[in-house]
Amino acid sequence: MTELTVGLVQHACTADTRANLDKSIAGIRAAAADGADLVVLQELHRGLYFCQHESTDEFDLAETIPGPSTDELGALAKELGVVIVTSLFEKRAAGLYHNTAVVLEKTGEIAGKYRKMHIPDDPGFYEKFYFTPGDLGFEPIQTSVGKLGVLVCWDQWFPEGARLMAMAGAELLIYPTAIGWDPNDTAEEQARQRDAWVTIQRAHAVANGVPVVSVNRVGHEADPNGGAGIQFWGTSFVAGPQGEFLFQSGTESEVTEVVSIDLARSEQVRRIWPYLRDRRVDHYGDLLKIYRD
């Protein structure tokens, strides 16, 4: 497949997990009706971003994989004939949980999964309390629409993950995301943060010569501890292998968009910008260190 039609589903979430999943499903159906071969959902799309605080009660939201959501979305993938990238709070065992992206094939079967490798622990993003770092590595998932390099949110700030996916043959990079502003920040600081988020992911497209698909949520979600909460900034986008925008959403509205990606351009771009050829792997050993003192 050289021409890939991708659907992006960007929406707000509430405490009603059934309503959230129904909203995601409606987006999948709309994207499929518009010709999508692949539909990407945002990070943890079934619920509120619960990592704003630390509470053991939130572990009740986790589910097994396979489980209820993969069963329902798998049946939908089979019905519509699309590949779906979903993002779930995985219960692997009692006391062992992951932030996991699952790829569902057109047959309804699980093509593969990726467990989020980089786990943040910052004000409003207390993910280390909930998620064990992934143990599946940076391995692309083979599907009927191509080899997908699926990563999750905080992973998008690390060039190493993107590079390793590309080195393993990923034809595009996919980032389900939940990121937003602290409403107390100035407009200037908010603009810098959003621009940095877009820029780093476009750089992954450029540095690896592959398209990038990033899907974020929108809306304000209150802090359970009474803080300012998070204003999720949307801005879901698709970039081509030179970082060029193929689509970018706004910061406030719920959006279902279908975007056509020419996968054949990646090889054309790599022939004139052969970064993989010119890498000096014989001098990169220090990348295995945390820091060079």
Plain-language structure description:
The protein has helices spanning 17-33, 68-80, 159-167, 187-208, 265-272, 275-278, and strands at 3-10, 38-41, 83-93, 96-104, 110-115, 121-122, 125-126, 141-143, 146-150, 172-176, 180-181, 212-215, 218-221, 230-233, 237-239, 245-248, 255-262. It has a single domain, classed as Carbon-nitrogen hydrolase (Nitrilase/N-carbamoyl-D-aminoacid amidohydrolase). A six-stranded mixed β-sheet has the order 5-4-3-2-1-17. With 293 residues, it is an alpha+beta fold. 25% of the residues lie in helices and 29% in strands.
Short description:
It is built from 6 helices and 17 strands. It is an alpha+beta fold. The strands form 4 sheets. It has a 6-stranded mixed beta sheet with strand order 5-4-3-2-1-17. A 6-stranded mixed beta sheet has the order 8-9-10-12-15-16, covered by helices on one side. A 3-stranded antiparallel beta sheet has the order 11-14-13, with helices on one face.
